[in-house]
Specification:
Elements: E1 25-28, E2 35-39, E3 42-46, H1 48-51, E4 55-56, H2 62-69
Length: 78
């Protein structure tokens, strides 16, 4: 998705195709309480222990992205 809200300030090529993917992220289903890990476009079942230390997968609004860039971690809690 392209947005005119954000200006591109740099473009750096990846060293290889594997580096094009972001690191694994944790997903917690709020209804069932079950955990999964999302990585390279796929989900797999996981335990809470496996998710420790991983970023929580989410869709972010602009104000949240700015907080994250500024180092505010309040949005990254399970």
């Amino acid at each position: 998705m392209k947005s005119d809200k954000w200006q591109i300030v740099d473009k750096r090529p990846f060293k290889n195709a594997d580096e094009e993917w972001p690191p694994p992220t944790c997903v917690k289903d709020n209804l069932s309480g079950k955990y999964s890990i999302y990585h390279k476009g796929e989900f797999r079942k996981a335990t809470e222990k496996e998710c420790e230390g991983l970023e929580i997968a989410s869709v972010w609004e602009a104000k949240h992205i700015i907080d994250r860039i500024m180092g505010i971690e309040k949005w990254n809690k399970i």
